């Protein structure tokens, strides 16, 4: 929308050229001020004037300032490797690749699941915060695997409640250092931000209740492949609980993993994959179950351990 300004010429601009006076009064360049005059956007005492005309103090100016140019809004870009496993009018299930977060966050400049889907023409519900539309749960940037998002408002409401009430079956596989003792068990330990304030999370007295069930699927010389079932969904929950047991996820340097083992297996991120996801369809009620195979980097690490 144009900005209309009306005012007298100040005494200090007596005798200046009209373009120079407009430039000083409105903080414009001389070139831009001249363009406004030539385009008929400046009237002096109600009439047209030339850019080189000299102004008199007290003369009345009517100036129409065009709206400032708006910066182009960046268009979402498709996300390579973001696989669509299932889609209907209410939900979409995706297989998230490495290096992708669920939705835009402060400080993150990389790809997101949300923007990748929007770029592909997927319409998600607008329920919730604008930057998190359709998001009902998240995976860390370098955790791969299955996510479900809501496309309808009804699905968003039902799925949010299902995750809150712990009725969603979330299964992960993780490769951890060493051999947990016992081989099967439950970790019930509260999690909150690490006291250092460095972005990590930790088992902290008074933190949010967090429950992780684990079962050893396969044991190797220096590592174990575990299946994890989550009751709660705290940030970094599996990584924090495994580190608290002194069996950090292989490659998870943030939580104390041994770089020697990760280098030997060529693992460049935490070995953690959301392998299965089960829930009741939010509008149809039928049980939905999905599985995701290991990405190449994780599969090759396990193959190498078996060969060793």
Automatic annotation (TrEMBL):
GO molecular function: RNA binding; rRNA pseudouridine synthase activity
Pfam family, one: S4
Record's signal peptide: none
Keywords, comma-separated and alphabetical: Isomerase, RNA-binding
Enzyme Commission identifier(s): 5.4.99.-
Swiss-Prot/TrEMBL catalytic activity: a uridine in RNA = a pseudouridine in RNA
GO BP terms: enzyme-directed rRNA pseudouridine synthesis
Occurrences of domain RNA-binding S4 (ranges): 16-74
Organism superkingdom: Bacteria
Enzyme class per UniProt: isomerase
Active-site residues (renumbered): 140
Family of this protein: Belongs to the pseudouridine synthase RluA family.
Described purpose of this protein according to its UniProt entry: Responsible for synthesis of pseudouridine from uracil.
UniProt-listed PANTHER family: MITOCHONDRIAL RNA PSEUDOURIDINE SYNTHASE, RIBOSOMAL LARGE SUBUNIT PSEUDOURIDINE SYNTHASE D
Name of this protein: Pseudouridine synthase
Organism: Nocardiopsis gilva YIM 90087
